[in-house]
Amino acid sequence: MNVGVVGYSESVEALAQLGKHTECVLKFWQPEDLPKVKLPRNVKKSSLEDIAQCSLIFFCAPAHQARQIARQLGEKVRANHVIVHTSRELEPESHRLLSDVLREETATHRIGFLTGPFRTADLKAKKSASGTLFSKFPEVHGIVQDALVSPVFRVYRSTDLVGGQIAASYSRVISFVYGVGLGMEQGPGVSATLFARGLAEIGRFVLAAHGQERTVFGMSGAGNLFVDVQEPFSTEVLLGQKSVEFGHYDLEKLNAEFGDEIPARFAMLVRAMTDTCSEQGLVSTIGEAALAIVEDRMSTKEAATYLMTLPVLDE
């Protein structure tokens, strides 16, 4: 099967590892004006016209580039294409889900979202893994299973496309605050509290968006959150730990540790998620603490004190 890969993020590496176990031919394209990237050996650079010949296209662009790239892709794809994105982000400016961006910029409605809990490092180490594909269309599930399922990779199915994207994105915010707790050496009790109450916060968000509660406790929500907080920790957890070490969300120091884009892009995600919660009238105490840190309105110590001194809440 010829499979298109559009835009570059870490998920391209993951798809390359998965493709080694199937008979997929992975063809990659992104706009020429973007920085050149080093592709895995089994991912071949192609033209947009070549990508348009693939029935299945994985859309791996980061959220801040998504609309620009989707618009160019939309000039070539047809209604019978399947597009599956892999991003645990919202569009920064509009707070739109990436499935909505793809639907707005391309001719197809046959859209899906593939998420963890799988890590590229585990796939490279030839460890077994699994993920979940969210789509309302059975044919999307079918073609992705044909492309990716192997003895070392299992794909679960869900129709809750909205809930899956929200849970996967907001779990990154919870992971960051979890990392703050680890950095402050608060112990497993606080870590467990952040994990459990974080899932409850994700659940309120998913239900308000008319998603399914079971999604929160599945692979997209609890699964992604669990793998994020396991060693080696996710980038979000490490950002939280480093913020404690620096005393606050010091962009200059964090850029030196993680690269110039990562801390700012994560701050945009936190802002998008918490703004969306506010627009829906939701209480997002952990998210608000994360926002106060990344906007440098609170030190990490002040944010921890804020969370611990909230009024008594119902379980």
List the helices and strands and how they pair.
Elements: E1 2-6, H1 10-19, E2 25-29, E3 43-45, H2 48-51, E4 56-59, H3 63-74, E5 82-85, H4 98-105, E6 111-115, H5 120-124, E7 129-134, H6 138-148, E8 153-158, H7 161-183, H8 188-208, H9 213-216, H10 219-228, H11 235-246, H12 251-258, H13 262-279, H14 285-294, H15 300-308
Parallel strand pairs: 1-2, 1-4, 2-3, 4-5, 5-6, 7-8
Antiparallel strand pairs: 6-7
Q: What's a concise summary of this model?
A:
The protein is an alpha/beta fold. Helices cover 52% and strands 12% of the residues.
Question: Explain this structure to me?
Answer:
With 315 residues, the chain is of the alpha/beta class. It folds into 2 domains: 158 residues, NAD(P)-binding Rossmann-like Domain (Rossmann fold, 3-Layer(aba) Sandwich), CATH 3.40.50.720; 147 residues, Orthogonal Bundle (N-(1-d-carboxylethyl)-l-norvaline Dehydrogenase, domain 2). The chain is 52% helix and 12% strand. It has an 8-stranded mixed beta sheet, sandwiched between helices. Strand 7, helix 6 and strand 8 form a beta-alpha-beta unit. The chain is globular, with a radius of gyration of 19 Å.
